[in-house]
Design a protein that fits this description.
This protein is mainly alpha-helical and 246 residues long. The chain contains twelve helices and no strands. It starts with a helix and ends in a 25-residue tail after the last helix.
Length: 246
């Protein structure tokens, strides 16, 4: 654990004696670290002690569910940045359990999709998490769902479904920047998303490189990627017509 048992007790008691909204207090980082410790901890006794301290601080601060969901969300992003996907998943599940907001459902689906054991029932769970966002054409949900079909499932028809989903994406600088940052870290998913957005003219050009560069990255990483992905959607060749026999 990041803190000794005595330090946890002293800081918890000090907070409870003079409670304040914990997201406006100096104890914010302390509480976030307690939650991270709780998610990492395997010893039942230590886990119970951490839970009691967290519960005392949350109760004393009169936190509402949005505050608590924000706490779990913050912990989830910290774990994600450290590439601790299992911990991030547990944290985002906590946020979803508290308020079930679309953003948290999308965050949970994203880290589940990025984990190494996405198959079977977990794929169904990810699809269920994203389904409400698809109905309102939320960009992150559309892109995440497209990546489930293309990368996780990957048949020819799955790639076509994914292409239909990407075609529904409207310009969204936040989503564009998110996947650009992935590409800048040499995460091939970033190249794939930018190639796709360029195909559908959501972006005129990618900050990650030329269309040919993106295609080379994508085709190397995903051997089953269909060749039509490197063309503009309105420049695909028409299906060949059978010539009439004389």
């Amino acid at each position: 654990m990041q803190y000794t048992e005595r330090e946890i007790l002293e800081r918890t008691n000090r907070f409870c004696e003079n409670p304040k909204p914990f997201f406006l207090s100096d104890e914010r980082e302390f509480l976030q670290n307690l939650v991270l410790d709780l998610l990492h901890e395997n010893d039942p006794t230590n886990k119970a002690g951490l839970f009691v301290s967290i519960f005392k601080i949350i109760t004393a601060s009169s936190a509402d569910k949005d505050d608590i969901a924000m706490l779990f969300r913050s912990v989830g992003f910290t774990a994600y940045e450290n590439e601790e996907y299992d911990i991030a998943e547990a944290a985002f599940k906590g946020a979803v359990a508290i308020n079930n907001e679309l953003a948290d459902r999308n965050n949970l689906a994203y880290v589940m999709r990025k984990s190494k054991n996405l198959s079977g029932a977990r794929i169904k769970e990810v699809i269920d998490l994203l389904s409400d966002g698809i109905q309102i054409k939320e960009p992150y949900c559309l892109i995440n769902m497209a990546l489930v079909f293309s990368v996780a499932l990957g048949t020819d028809s799955d790639w076509e479904i994914a292409d239909t989903l990407i075609a529904m994406v409207q310009t969204d600088s936040s989503a564009i920047n998110w996947w650009q940052e992935l590409g800048e870290k040499d995460d091939t998913e970033g190249y794939l998303v930018h190639l796709w957005l360029n195909r559908h003219k959501v972006i005129a050009e990618s900050g990650l490189g030329t269309r040919q560069f993106l295609w080379e990255k994508v085709s190397t990483a995903y051997p089953n990627v269909p060749v039509w992905l490197k063309t503009d959607v309105d420049q695909e060749p028409e299906p060949a017509q059978d010539s009439e026999q004389d």
